[in-house]
Design brief:
Blueprint lengths: L2 H11 L27 H9 L8 H12 L2 E5 L6 H15 L4 E5 L16 H5 L4 H10 L2 H10 L2 E3 L13 E5 L7 H8 L7 E6 L13 H8 L5 E5 L9 H9 L1
Parallel strand pairs: 1-5, 1-6, 2-3, 2-4, 4-5
Length: 254
């Protein structure tokens, strides 16, 4: 072994000490004072890449605080205000911290003005195009490989709104996205699924409903629930939009 290789080994593993060898076999103890870890360095790089969840506006700060303090939170606001992303990010944070046992994602299967017909595959495959925004937010907080593993274990569940009747969601973080495409009856059914040790976040924009006029129940539900002290209703505005600056300009005139 060359002198340079020996110096590299000593820097990595520490200086060789004869007392670290047993009498019967020359088996050296693993160094504990150098911060050695059995995990590969790639894990450390992925962990360091995880983005810190920070609000970018006063409205987002109010939403994050509402999710932390209330078991039921309604986030209403225009496109680009980060409603879905913040809800999913807080769900991942709660799951990773062990505060909940699973994440339940639900979204109405309503097309944006056009019908794309029947989709092949299992239930998850049929709902995948509608849940793409939720998957994007999940993949930003977790790798897609880990998302797939968590879904296989049942820790991340895709729950169609049509199959939620009669369920009780205990120890779960529930995210209901695009709630403006739900009727009053559907939202009433979804909100009453909340169980013990669970958090539910309902997101949507009452002004971007793909249903017929007067069918969406999100605005009515939010107005009624604002009178309940234990429920948080956060209304985001154009100043909270974090997409391209033109999005905020368009929202103001469209």
């Amino acid at each position: 072994m060359t002198k340079r290789s020996a110096l590299k080994r000593q820097a990595r593993e520490g200086v060789l000490d004869s007392r670290e060898f047993s009498q019967d076999a020359k088996v050296r103890r693993l160094p504990t004072h150098t911060g050695w870890s059995p995990y590969p360095s790639n894990d450390d790089r992925d962990q360091a890449y995880l983005k810190t969840l920070k609000p970018k506006s006063e409205g987002q700060a109010a939403l994050l605080n509402a999710i932390d303090t209330a078991s039921l939170c309604l986030a209403l606001g225009p496109a680009g205000t980060g409603k879905t992303y913040l809800a999913v990010a807080k769900a991942v944070e709660a799951l990773e911290a062990g505060r909940v046992g699973r994440i339940v994602l639900s979204r109405p299967a309503v097309e944006a003005g056009e019908s794309i017909g029947f989709l092949p595959g299992a239930m998850e495959d049929k709902l995948a195009p509608y849940l793409r925004p939720l998957y994007d937010a999940l993949s930003d907080r977790l790798s897609m490989k880990r998302v797939g593993a968590l879904m296989a274990e049942g820790l991340i569940e895709i729950a169609p709104i049509g199959y939620m009747r009669g369920r009780t969601l205990n120890n779960a973080f529930v995210v209901v996205d695009e709630a403006q495409n739900c009727t009053y009856t559907q939202l009433k059914m979804l909100l009453t699924r909340l169980g013990w040790h669970s958090t539910m976040v309902v997101t949507g924009d009452p002004h971007q409903s793909d249903l017929l006029p007067g069918v969406s129940g999100l605005a009515d539900i939010a107005e009624r629930l604002e009178a309940v002290p234990e429920i948080a209703v956060v209304r985001l505005a154009e100043r909270d939009i974090v997409r391209h600056p033109l999005v905020a300009s368009m929202i103001g005139v469209l």
